[in-house]
Structure formats: structure tokens, C-alpha cells
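Hi there, hope your week has been kind to you so far. Would you mind checking whether the C-alpha cells look sensible for this chain? I owe you a coffee for this, so here goes:
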Amino acid sequence: MTTTPHGIDTSQAAARATARQIPAATVRSYPREAAQAAFLLGGIGTGNVSVGSRGELRDWEIFNWPGKGNRLPFSFFALRAETTDGTRIVRVLESQLNGPHALSHGYFNGDLAGLPRFTHSTLRAEYPFVHVDLTEPGVPLHVRLEAFTPFVPGDAEASGIPAAVLRYHVTNLAATDMSVSVVGSLANAAGFVGHDVFGNLKLAGEVTNTQRDGDHARGLYYTTDLPAGHERFGTMGLATTEADVTFRPAWVKGEWTDSAQDFWNDLSSGKRIDPIEEIEVAATGSALNDYLDFSYLQLREKVGSIDAAKTIPAGTTATFEFVLTWHFPNRAKGWVEVDEDLDRHAAGGYPLVRNYYATRYDDAWAVLEDLLANLPELERDSRAFTRALYGSSLPASFLEAAAANITVLRSLTCFWLEDGNFYGWEGIRDDVGCGLGNVNHVWNYAQTVAFLFPELEKTMRDIEFGLEIGDDGALPFRSRQTLDEPRWEMVPAADGQLGAIVRVCREWRLTGDREFLTRLWPAVERAMRYALSYWDTDGDIVPDSQQNNTYDIEFYGPNGMMGSLMVAALRACQDMAEGLGRTATAEEFGTLAEASSANLDRLCFNGTFYQQQLIDPDQYRYQIGPGIHSDQLLGQFLAYVTGLGHVLPADHVRQALAAIRHHNFKPRMADVGTVQRVYALNDEPGLVLCSWPDGGRPRFPFGYSDEVWTGVEYQVAASLVYEGMIDDAVTLVDAVRSRQDGFRRNPWSENEAGHHYTRSLASWALITGMLGFNADLGRGTVTFDPKFAEQEFCCFWSHGQGWGTYRHERAADGALHAVIEVLHGTLGADTVNAPLPVTIRG
């Protein structure tokens, strides 16, 4: 059918989405003991702080470096409640600490581990919102922390705010009214360098805490005396929108535990936390202080507190709202990764560059004011996204995988600089990045950014094809030059270069940006012709020479992975040339694609799967030989999500996928003996990268062949979905998410070569596959070809011009029809291809 949507009222549509209920069965809960669970708060390219399963703030990664385990001493929220009969309850707003407690010095003072906490907590998340419920038998209170950072697909700036909103919903379960204070305390970490041996902060300068009244909130503003151009320079803010508020800009300065003791004395005795008259304890202290300059003896942290108070009638709930902001504008301009880089950085060898958010905000207080001024709209749109996504009729593990891995965008894996370009490591170590340079053979798998924020994804293509590509058409698989580093001179990666060509086509189709395509086309065509001449030595248009790839080795001879990518790249070039009106070029690439596909199928399909063709697999180390390779259809995967259809015979694709599922999925990884890296083990299930059920394993197979990579598991699962093999796909994705259970691994960090690994962003293709969705906005067309077994269902969709839901509804006469609801932006298409008559709402 043909439709022309105009005048879409996104605010009304968003309100309707907000009214829907999230199906509770699709959201997993994590108890206090799930100590690996950590939900990231923060914007795209801003750094983050995480909420743990106990409700604690942890892993402070707001300083432009990865910081797993970064603690901020004395930074926590607490509650004091008092009933009319004088009963007083005082708790840190966390649940009790988990073991083990075998620490060499016990818990540091700044952990305040000895203060009373709730006995139970449960964490649940519906992206971008996280909730932690705190309870304790015999305590007539229920506390729910609700925290979020705005997240609006298609609006990167709205999703790139260095802030977190924290709301404590306190329910009075007693029979009488309660006077309640929620007190937020935060250490000033401006100038953060790290921690000393006693767990206290090491700062590069002197810091100052100031109480401020703003247009939308009152709070504390933290500064440093470092110059604005210093790498460690920054500001922080903690504020509340509540009316009855007192402030303590700085705790008392004393020795040992004086500052925390003074704070706790006041809180537990029923006093409000207000400014102190005695800034520094005057009474004689420890003589040891005259001889030793230990931070545990002379605490240097400047901690401020905000006390928000309310009376809560019996049986009712009151909300206490706080906002945390940060602004650390400067970072090293370069890919600082290995020891040599760290030494250079320590010697001042890197210039500085600013984060993108620093072009929008002057400091943390400006962030705070802007966030609160726009919070109603930002929260409305964020909730609209949440309702639309979690209202999808997806298998629970699919929804969890797609939503949980959005976190990669907020992690230190990704950064967004003042030049507007978006960058990504492969992943991050605990304290430094891993895998420099927007590695194209890893980002091949990632789909989330392209479908939710294609304007950011396009900057990666601009860097690749506008700057990095050589005159000969060779594309480095690491991008370095925009950060003033020398071009990566290693041989190009066959999978990365061919995949990048397909992804230019994807970005054009998702956005309809003809100027983008016109600008990059000459370089794309050059890259395609280079690929044809460099990787195909015998003219059959099937790669057979040295093929560097994402396994950090080289394949030789025809194989399904590189062959399917060659066909997909040729199909993409055909599609782009047609879009630009270059008919002859399109016909040329179309003919080449047909020949490439036919020759690959003839050479490599053995009746069951696509097999590498080498007379002697041991002639070169690290080959596949007769093995069943999980990535043998990677080019087909990219063709699916781009909307290019089948690049190989459909029946052969399904047979190969069935072989991968049957042979490479291991219900129990203990049965796989391996000397390689291990990401799944013991009784855990997983999909290995290659298996040799009929023998023929090379003496030295490629070095990751026995490993389990979640991104490849998702790539295979999504491909199964596109082919309608849903049960097999569910088996694979259920296996991945069973391992990310909060006890053994973080549900919001799927690791490979680092935390929050980029390849896991392949999970978004589970959604596009189930919906059979593709957008060709350059031609004004969107397509829905759903794979849902139910006759009535709903699913989220998105592209570069808007997002919303697609669902099948049953009318009063019993007939099914399709409804497209546009919740943000526009549908961007005149033609809608769908299996049922379509109504567009918005």
C-alpha cells in the first residue's frame, strides 16, 4: 500500500506509549547477592557511574578513563525516619554488603561498611530506568530508588547528558505519620587522579564545595583550582528539587574518622544536616599526626551533604528527587592503550581534546540547570521509548539482550568528541581501553548505534572513507588520523573493508541522506575495486589470497565468511549506484555479485555448510579447513540487516545455519577442552566459533576457534531469525543471557577483549529480524515482514528519521490489520510494505 504521513503529533503518541504497561515477565530481577550486576547511568560519550544490586553507587567512570572498581569515598544516600511516638530508623540507602570480606585492612573508612543498611534489595531495569527496592523485616518502610539518564533514540544530544536523576520513593508502612529525611552525600572528586593505599582520593589540585541556589534546584557545586586546560580539570554538582532542604557544604575537618563520625552523630540523633560552625576540630588530636602524613589520619576528602525532609502520612509514598551531574571536559587526544602509550601519557606526550558535551555546557551546574529545565520532555520521551521497547512481543531473552547491550554506548568503550565524531574501542579493560581505532572488523557486527543513532554511526563511515582510505582503495582496519596519530599501516582486514562498504549502504538506507552517499561514493567504489583486485587472484570474484580478519590472523583460500562478505559488498555497491542513478556501474556490480555468489556456492558449499577450500589446511597456521565456522555467513547477516536480501541460495543458507546450530552449540562447555581464552565454562552453554565434527581439525586452528563470543552468538541467532528458525535462535540467546546472571557476570557488560564489548551490539538485529524490518529511506520505503508466531503482537522499530511501534490488531469484525505508531520523528516513507492493510498513527 502507499501512504503519505504528514503532521505527526509526537507528543500525543508518546503519551499513548507511556500509558501502556510493561510486561513484568520480560524483566529479570537481581537480588542483593548478585554482586556483578551494575547498571550504568550517564549519557553517550559522557562517562558513567553505576548502580549496583545493593543500590550502591559504584564504578565511578566520569573522569574520561575506564574505572571499574573506582570508589568515591563517603558518597552515598541515607535515610532518617521518625514516627510520632519517637521511634527512629536510620539506614544507609543500600542493602548489606556481600562477602567475601577478606580484605587486608578491612573496609576503608570511606566505605562506611559498619553503618546500618537494609537487609534485602532487588534490582530491576527497563532501559534506561533502573529500580532498586530496599526492605527489611520489622522496618515499617519500603524504599525504591529509581534512577535514569535520559535516552531518546534519534536525539543524541538528549541522550548525551553527563548526569543522573535519582529518586527515592519512600513508603510509610507504619500506622502513624513519619518525618523522613533523605540525605545525599558526595565527595568532591574534581581533579581525580586515583586512590592512595588507604583508599582515599588522590586529587591533582585543591577543591572547593559551594552551596548554590539555581533556577530549578538548590544544591552543591564542586570545583577545583586546576586551570581549565588541565586534563584533570572538572566540576561536579549534586542538587535537589525538594523544598525543605538543608545543606552541609563540607563535613568537619578532623583526624581519623572525625568527619564521618560528626555526620553520623547528627543524622542518627535526629538533627538536620546543616552547615557546621566548627569547620575544623579544635580539640587536641593524635600526636601521630605531627610525624606522619597519612590520609587515613588526615582525611583530605571534602564531602558535602544535602538533607531533604518531608512528612509522610501513614500508608502513603513520598518522592525525594536528586540530580547528580559532572563535567570533565578534557581528555588525551589519542588512543592510550598499551604500556608505551601510558608512559607517553605520564610524560605529558598527548595533547588534549574536549568531549562533545563540553561544547554544550560550561560546567556541571550548567548541565544541571539544562537537564532540569528540559526534564519533563526528556523523561516523557525516554519513557515512551521504554514502553515501546518493553511492550514488544519478543522472547524475553531477545528483549533483554537488545536492551542490556545499549549500555555499550554509555560505557567508556565509546566516546564523542568536540569535532562531532563518534569513536569506539573494541572494549575496555578495568582502567584503560582495549582495541584502538573504531576497529572495522569488530564494528561490522554492531547494529545498535546504526538503528538508534545513525547520525553518530555515519561519522565513523566519514572517517573511514573520507580520511583513512588510501589512494589505492585500501582501508586501514583501525582509524587513527583524526586523533593526529599516524595511519595504521598493517594489511587491511578483508572482513572489515568489505563490511564497511555494506555499512555505508546501511547508513544511507536508514537515513535517506543522499548527500552522505554522494560524498562517500567515490571512495566506496575505490574500496570495492581494491577488494576485487587484492583478495581475488584468479578472477572468479571469490577471495582466495591472504585475508586478514577479526580473529587477528589470516585465512587463505575460498571460504564462506569472506566470500559472503564479497557478495554482500558487491550487492551494496549495486544498490548505492542505483540510488545515485549510475546505471552502468550498478549493472556492473550486479553482474559481479551474481558471479561471485554462484562461484562461492560452487566452490565452498559441501551440501551441508560452506567449507574453506585448502588442499592442506596445515600449509598455513590458523585455518578452518573442514570445520564448521560460525561466521561463515557473516556477509549474509549484514545483507539481512541492510535490506539487501539473500546473497547466497536461501536453501543453502538455511542448511548452513542448521549445521552451525547443531554442531557449534555446546550445552556444556566443560565438554570443550581448550587452551584458548575462556568466556564460558563448566556447565554453561555456548556457541563456539568453530567445530570439526567429522575430524580434520588443523594442528593449529585459528587461535579463537574454541571461544564463545556473544557478538557471534547474536549474529548467528539473528540470522536464524531472519530465516524463520526462531526456536534455534531462542536456544542460543537464552544461553547467552543465562551466563549474564548478575552472579557470574554483569547483565549490562558482555565481555570479549574488554568490558562492554562492541560486538555484543549485534544483539539489536534480533529485533529487526523478528520484525523483518528494513528501511530504504533513500527510496521512501519501509518494510515489515514479521516472524512472530502470534497473530496479534507488537514490536519496536527505528531508523534515522523516527521510531515507534508496529503491531497487528484484531478489529471488531475479527480481521487483523497492521498499525504503525510513530512516537518520535516521522515514518519517513511514502510506501509501506507489510503483510496486512496498514493504518499509520502518530
Remarks:
- Confidence is low (pLDDT under 50) at residues 1-25.
